[in-house]
Design brief:
globular; 8-stranded mixed beta sheet; 22% strand; Transporter substrate-binding domain-containing protein; alpha+beta; signal; 8 strands
């Protein structure tokens, strides 16, 4: 995202907030936009969506000492699942509850707290972006503890993510257009894939 912004000659200042707060700050115009959101009709009313910046795979992490497998939503019944506050996965799990599947939802403000709760056995499963949670485990978890965590190969969803620009300002439209043109150039000349390859190599091999 930073590379595309630089390519588009857009000055970027990054602020790091809990996900739900990031959305609120962008919606009120205190910040120009927010990074890494899936598409919903409700969000499209307030934001201009960029081209997809990344496709996330969202799955379950669990402790290896406890057997876990799932092939359909009903297999999730009886599990306490940690999810990040503000993510669309909260809605997904709530819909499972409404359908009669007994999932227990626990919301967290950040990914680190979710992994800590998993290791402390306060939840049975941590649901999240596989790339992000792998990075958290690689960087934040002690080596002996890392060996206790695995992730299930079946994702609950695979979803394109976008940068959201404030729809209420002319600047938002201009920034979205310039950003998209730059992002397309990065994808066309191979730099986009190189950036992601370097990211995964740097963050997973620790």
């Amino acid at each position: 995202m930073i590379q595309a912004a630089q390519e588009a000659d857009i000055a970027v200042s990054l602020g790091y907030f809990p996900w739900h707060q990031s959305m609120a700050l962008a919606q009120t115009g205190e910040w120009d936009g927010t990074i890494g959101w899936a598409y919903t009709k409700e969000r499209a009313n307030n934001f201009i969506y960029s081209d997809p910046i990344y496709t996330e795979s969202v799955g379950f992490f669990y402790l290896t000492e406890r057997e876990f497998d799932w092939q359909s939503p009903k297999d999730l019944g009886g599990f306490a699942i940690g999810v990040t506050k503000g993510f669309i996965d909260v809605k997904t799990l709530t819909e499972l509850q409404k359908s009669g599947i007994d999932v227990k939802i626990q919301e967290f403000l950040d990914e680190e707290s979710k992994i800590d709760a998993l290791l402390a056995q306060q939840i049975d499963l941590a649901l999240g972006n596989i790339d992000v949670l792998k990075r958290v485990i690689a960087q934040e978890v002690e080596p002996k503890q890392k060996q206790k965590i695995a992730h299930h190969p079946r994702p609950i969803r695979i979803t394109p993510l976008y940068v959201l620009f404030n729809r209420q300002t002319k600047q938002g439209y201009d920034q979205a257009e310039r950003f998209n043109k730059a992002l397309r150039r990065l994808k066309a000349d191979g730099r986009y894939q190189m950036i992601w390859s370097h990211f995964r190599q740097a963050h997973y091999n620790q």
